[in-house]
Specification:
Number of helices: 11
Radius of gyration: 25 Å
Helix content: 40-55%
Number of strands: 6
Structural class: alpha/beta
Number of domains: 2
CATH class of the largest domain: Alpha Beta
Length: about 300
């Protein structure tokens, strides 16, 4: 966005350029038109160069993605868990990359605002306690906090710790029905298999999912019930937003994180992170990732 400050800087730059031209014998004012045209042409060329540089990474990712994947997601389905505010275009693009890697998305689940709203903690706690009692011992940790327990329940509902998909069991079905009935999460229709990998897509608008205690608890619990969990967000969230904050929490050691997924390069990176998570490795990747831009190792 062009600010008043930018306007001032631009004007100062113009006057300085004119002053330097006169001081160096740049000629009369009649020559200023020619100089301005040359300057405009140079600026246009620089803009084009910058655009080409910015798109090079995306073009490279699109061209090499399938080769890098080598169909390694075949037989390893990915469940998509979209948080409130997740960009539909990003979710669709990520699903396409999973397919390009030989994988499938058996089900997409959408977290509803009530689940991450601290004001609804009583509802989340009550339902979690009821489900824990109903399912019996061993399904979730009886000593877990409210949101960690709910994360574990969601993990049982949509995922498995095994490397391949498994048929949905009665526990998973019961949890799905309860979460849908309480307006805490949506679930695909039918008996959708549970998947070994879970791709969590964070919001693409500032301010969403900002309660880190809630989000950390959910993701920490979820990670214990999956073969691999990858949390993704856009560049802004990775730089100074919700993902950046999440990376400072202990849960960052339990999941793999990727920022920049609004771009093709980021989407390919997220898919490579799924492969990494399947192998039992975590990390922080993307434009602001502490472990590098892309997980190739």
């Amino acid at each position: 966005m062009i600010t008043y400050r930018h306007h001032i800087v631009s004007l100062v730059s113009v006057f300085l350029a004119l002053a330097v031209g006169v001081a160096l014998g740049g000629g009369p004012l009649s020559e200023l038109g020619r100089t301005a045209s040359a300057t405009t042409a140079t600026a246009k060329e620089k803009t084009q160069d910058a655009t080409r540089a910015a798109t090079f990474g995306d073009e490279f990712a699109v061209a090499t993605g399938a080769t890098l994947y080598a169909d390694r997601l075949q037989d390893h389905p990915v469940a998509v868990l979209a948080l409130p505010g997740a960009d539909e275009r990003i979710v669709a693009a990520l699903e396409q990359q999973v397919q390009a890697a030989g994988g499938t998305v058996p089900g997409r689940y959408d977290v509803q605002q009530a689940l991450i709203n601290p004001d609804e903690k009583s509802l989340v706690d009550t339902l979690g306690s009821q489900l824990m009692t109903q399912l019996g011992a061993g399904v979730v940790d009886a000593e877990a906090s409210t949101y960690t327990r709910m994360g574990q329940l969601i993990g049982v509902a949509i995922s498995t710790t095994q490397p391949t998909a498994e048929p949905v069991g009665k526990d998973a079905t019961s949890i799905r029905q309860s979460l849908v009935g309480a307006d805490l999460m949506t679930s695909p229709r039918g008996e959708v298999d549970v998947a070994p990998l879970v791709l969590v897509v964070m919001a693409s608008k500032p301010g969403a999912n900002e309660d880190q205690a809630v989000l950390s608890g959910l993701l920490s619990g979820l990670a214990t019930r999956t073969a691999g969990t990858v949390v993704v967000a856009d560049s802004q969230a990775g730089f100074d937003g919700s993902l950046a904050a999440l990376r400072r929490e202990p849960v960052a050691d339990e999941v793999t994180t990727v920022d920049g997924v609004e771009s093709s390069l980021g989407q390919v990176t997220a898919t490579l992170a799924l492969l990494r998570a399947l192998a039992g490795n975590g990390g922080s990747f993307g434009a602001s990732g502490a472990d590098g831009a892309v997980p190739l190792g």
